[in-house]
Amino acid sequence: MATVAEVTEVHAPAPGHKGLWSWITTVDHKRIGILYLWSALLFFIVGGIEALLIRLQLFTPNGEILSADAYNQLFTMHGTTMVFLVVMPLASGFVNYLLPLLLGARDVAFPRLNAFSYWVFFVGGVLLYSSFILGGSPDGGWFGYAPLSTQVPEYVRMDFWAVGLLTLGVASIASSANFIATILTMRAPGMTLMRMPVFVWMTLVISFLLLFSLPTITVGLFQVFFDRNFGTLFYETAAGADPLLWQHLFWLFGHPEVYVLILPAMGIVSEILPVFSRKPLFGYSFVVFSGIAIGFMGFGVWSHHMFTSGMGPVAEAGFAISTMMIAVPTGIKIFNWIGTTWGGRIRLTTPMLYALAFIAMFVIGGLSGVTHSIVPADTQQHDSYYVVAHFHYVLFGGAILGLFAGIYYWYPKMSGRMLSERLGKWQFWITLIGFNLTFLPMHMLGLNGMPRRTYRYDENLGFDLWNAVATIGGFVIALGVLLFVINVIWSRRHGEIAGDDPWDARTLEWATSSPPPEHNFDQVPLVHSRDDFWHRKYTLDAEGFLQQRDEPVGDWIPEADPEHIHMPSPSYYPALTALGMGIVGYGVLYQPAGFIVAAIGALVLMWGAFGWSMEPVTRTPEPMAHDDRHPELEAAAATEEVESE
Amino acid sequence: MTDLVTAEGHGEHISTHPDMNVVRKTAMWVFLGSECIFFGSLIATFLLYRTETRGGPTAKELFDIPFTSASSFILLMSSLTMVLAHNARERRDPRQLRIWLLATALLGSTFLAGQAFEFTEFAHEGLKLTTSPFASSFYVATGFHGAHVAVGVLMLLALLFMSMSGRLRTGEGMNVELVGLYWHFVDVVWIVIFTVVYLLQV
User: Fold this and answer.
1) What residues in chain A have per-residue pLDDT under 70?
2) Is the distance from CB of B175 to CB of B57 less than 8 angstroms?
3) 3-class SS at A526?
4) Closest CA to A47 of A437, A540, A392
5) Is A492 left (phi over 0), alpha (psi -120 to 50) or beta?
6) A524 pairs with which residues across the strands?
7) What three-state secondary structure class fits A244?
8) In terms of Cα–Cα distance, which of A43, A23, A48, A27 is closest to A35?
9) Which pLDDT tens digit goes with each residue over B5-14?
10) Among the CATH numbers 3.30.830.10, 1.20.210.10, 1.10.287.1040, 3.40.50.2300, which is that of A33-495?
11) Do the chains contact at B136 and A233, CB–CB below 8 Å?
12) Which run of H or E residues covers position A227?
């Protein structure tokens, strides 16, 4: 039914889908996903510039470019940005865009809550970055160790950090609950849990990770904020407080967070490798259950960040063992990915190159991670550049490369046009070389004793060469990112028209048009197997060889009332509620006078929340956006009739 | 494959629309799971600092168990009225619904008044927010619980308003069942706080 004629032109956005206001009020998961992706890419460039400044300062011994103060601000904001404003929203962008498509659903469970999450994220990012012009940005590290972060109360810098992260936490909690509800209750008929794409499984795991890890840092951030502003004594060691409390609260969030950053990339790679190997994912259930195991074990390893804080031999031994054990499910995944490519008919497209590089780089980062589980070795590596090298291999070599794979893979679905493969491959090789040039030397620097977070080093310590190499590498990465930006801008106009299924892919998002209509599917698919879309296209002949069907087959569930469709209506209340939250945030930063501002913010927030509750999800059904290619498209499904009292 | 659809009666009986009440309850449940960790961290902090009184008043000297027991009883009774409100909703009895919603909100407010009174008493006896880590962790843990009760009261009043203006719907917006889940959760947390923060410290 969904056979699609040759596509020659990307169809124009639906009426009413242009202009700033339509973006502010949108509740369409695809547009919200695009908002997340663009915001994250913007922050990626900003965070990258911060990294380049850091590298410039360290290019030569006794660098003169940055003051110690500026350096502290930059490394704090670089870390905070890359974790909270780049990798998490990039993943969130993919999840937003793809989750309903992969599940055969029309939207996420709570479209307006979804919009709210984005706007709260946006407000949190603005809060954090406005600190640069309001007296200096946070300067206590992305981990904000107390009591360092509770001191120097004459600056509001770490208040910006605490309030900013609290705000971002609200966004993450809201989207996690939303995604879990979507996955557990909104799947297309026949889409059983074990037929779900691995990316969806990983989304489920990270949503639970965020739900159960964010509250600990939330409590810690409140304590830091109260210590700084209301004179509480949570981290006042002179009064008998215990600074280790912060480290536990932070890392009990911080380590699950590491898996929140990497599991989406693992999910993306698990989607891409089968497509470009023309084989189903090897050991699907092992990959899924390893992801779940990582999720559970991720809550039992946090104290390996604290081996030098003197927890005693029992705790250290316990966390050393759990840290070694968490490598097992990770290793299982690696072998399954290799098994997927084994004997496959591999197409080395740009997404595939990124996915393969992800495996290689992640293995290096994973192995150096296991070295941290050995307590005596970790004591040496702690706070040295070795750790910096390790987590950049995991977060850049892992998460960012995996997310780039996802961008190249799904960009055609999102925009209707292909990114240039030629530019893409150039970008890939330049980024990969630049990345290794930057971070491989840091292993050597760390083992030679160069400490992290110091803004300069003396000459003749043996650090000169590798620091220079790393800085050059940093600029090579920047060149790669520049090529990417050029690629995106170029392909918006000149990219090859993608069509519905440019990669001959396996999952349901490719069964609809590119970009998909607002309601995703003309008719909801009835799912019969894992990789359902593949089985709609291919069958096995009598001898067991893969045979392309003449025409895709497959079940679609007819709409009961194709004439009257309602998708959720646009709403400005989510953005208004988020705005109220931002005003509260600025208000509490400058108390006591700011409390008036905060009160106004609270009123705006309540106005937004109340209006949101009062407003029906769907107003009077309007005619659907017209789609020239499918007149029957107007037959999208209705959301449930609202039962009014 | 089309056979399958035919076999199932042209797919007519396959619902593509999830029951929105189930969807919403799922989200509320996982959110409450998250809240468990939130209060768990607050209570853990209190347990770490329960003896760090810095020469200020201690738990033994301060806590008035009969008084707090009474206010705890009031809060737990509000769970009963919440159930009655939900029951009235199921029976489609708007009058009873409004009575019990109001009763729940009043009982919650009484609890909050008790907490305000208790905090003032403690402050008079020399336990300020800044007196000791014990004081900070006590006020912040119980204060956040109070804030949750206050949000609950606001939601109950909003439900009452929605019911009066005929805008209470099932399947979207706030509804009695979701607010009820939240309200019961806040009560359950209080049982833990009352036991761990009050009873175990005297």
Assistant:
1) 1-17, 152-154, 560-566, 618-645
2) no
3) strand
4) A392
5) alpha
6) A557
7) helix
8) A23
9) 433 434 445 6
10) 1.20.210.10
11) yes
12) helix A198-230
Question: Sign of torsion, CA A465 A471 A474 A476?
Answer: negative
Residues A28 and A512: their CA atoms lie apart, in Å, by 16
Please tell me which of the candidates A173, A234, A639 has its beta carbon nearest to residue B136: A234
The reply to whether ipTM tops 0.85 is yes
Whether the CB of A405 is below 8 Å from some CB of chain B: the reply is no
pLDDT tens per residue across span A11-70: 555 555 678 899 999 999 999 999 999 999 999 999 999 999 999 999 999 999 999 999
Looking at residue B202, what is its pLDDT? 87
Q: B residues 156-175 near A, CB within 8 Å? A: 158, 162, 166-174
| SS3 (DSSP) at A525 | strand
**B128: closest chain A residue by CA:** A232
Residue with tokens 């840092």: A217
Bridge partners of A546? Answer: A540
Say yes or no to pLDDT of B3 above 90. Answer: no
Q: How far from A208 is each of A102, A127, A183, B11, CA to CA, in Å?
A: 19, 26, 12, 34
The nearest CA of chain B is from the CA of A634 a distance in Å of 17
The alpha-helical segments, DSSP class H, found in B125-194 are 133-164, 176-193
- Candidates B2, B12, B14, B16, partner chain A, best to mutate (most A CBs within 10 A): B16
pLDDT for A635: 36
Quote the strand ranges of A382-475, DSSP E. Answer: none
Residue A263: partners with Cβ closer than 8 Å, 6 or more residues away: A202, A205, A206, A209, A291, A294, A295
Residue identified by tokens 């709409």 is A559
Residue reference for tokens 């810095």: B54
Asked whether A179 and A108 are in contact (CB, 8 A), the reply is yes
Amino acid in the structure at residue A452: R
Beta-carbon separation of B31 and A177 below 8 A? yes
Nearest chain B residue to A103 by CA: give it: B16
Helices (H) and strands (E) in chain B, counts: 7, 0
Chain A residues 235-254 within an 8 A CB cutoff of chain B:
236, 239-242, 245, 249
Which 8-state DSSP code applies to residue A326? T
Instruction: Give me the helices (H) in A495-593, please.
Output: 532-537, 573-589
CA Rg, chain B, in Å?
A: 22
Q: How far apart are CA A166 and CA A162, in angstroms?
A: 6
Instruction: Tell me the residue type at A250.
Output: F
CB A214 within 8 A of CB A253: yes
The Cα A571–Cα A554 span in angstroms is 35
Q: What is the CATH architecture of B20-201?
A: Up-down Bundle (1.20)
Take residue A480 and report the two structure tokens written for it. 């790669």
CA dist A438 and A481 (Å) reads 14
Nearest to B21 by CA among B182, B185, B177: B177
Q: By the 8 A CB rule, do A587 and A601 touch?
A: yes
Task: Read off the pLDDT of residues A152-183 as tens digits, 9 standing for 90 and up.
Answer: 666 788 999 999 999 999 999 999 999 999 99
- Which ranges in A231-283 belong to alpha helices (H)? 244-277
pLDDT at A17: 65
